[in-house]
Amino acid sequence: MLLDIKEIREYLPHRYPFLLVDRVVELEVEKRVKAIKNVTCNEDFFNGHFPDHPVMPGVLIIEALAQAAGVLGFKTMDKKPSEGSIYLFVGADDVRFKRQVVPGDQLVLEAEVLRVRAGVWKFGCRASVDGETVCTATIMCADRTV
């Protein structure tokens, strides 16, 4: 299943400059998602991180993984934020960074459902560039009604 930016915006409440998923290239409901974030030199965060050596902040890589996982969770539950549901980031464990992400990179975001219990989802996540692992983490998100 493919989702373009218009469809992604239906499943994520985030907007510029905080929407960090550009395209979903694979999605198996209840199982896994693979999404893309195109990293450009025009990203706001590069103005200060770092002007002479731009590096995507690690916390934004984690956020991008959580957003990809959020799309999978919303699609699996067949819910949308417009229906009064919000998907909150509640934790990250075993976070490891292996390489920097710089302008021009295409960040591939992968998340797989590890378990769901009482509205809290646990995902095994991996971010990569050109097949090389950038970051791995276990991310937890909670489905809540607003």
What does this entry look like structurally?
The protein contains two helices and six strands. The chain has 146 residues and is an alpha+beta fold. The protein has a single domain, classed as Thiol Ester Dehydrase, Chain A, CATH 3.10.129.10. It has a six-stranded antiparallel beta sheet, covered by helices on one side.
How would you summarize what this structure contains?
With 146 residues, the chain is α+β, with helices and mostly antiparallel strands.
Shape: globular
The radius of gyration computed from the alpha-carbon positions, rounded to a whole number of angstroms, is 15 Å
Contiguous helical run count: 2
Low-confidence stretches: none
Helix percent band: 10-25%
Provide the CATH top-level class: Alpha Beta
Strand order of the largest sheet: 1-2-4-5-6-3
CATH superfamily: Hotdog Thioesterase
Q: Structural class of the helices, strands and pairings?
A: alpha+beta
Number of strands: 6
Beta-strand content estimate: 35-45%
Largest sheet entry: 6 strands, antiparallel
Shape-level CATH architecture: Roll
Write a concise keyword list for the protein shown above.
6-stranded antiparallel beta sheet, 146 residues, alpha+beta, 18% helix, Thiol Ester Dehydrase, Chain A
Question: What is this structure's SSE topology?
Answer:
Blueprint: H1 5-11, E1 23-28, E2 32-38, H2 58-77, E3 85-97, E4 106-117, E5 120-129, E6 132-145
Antiparallel strand pairs: 1-2, 2-4, 3-6, 4-5, 5-6
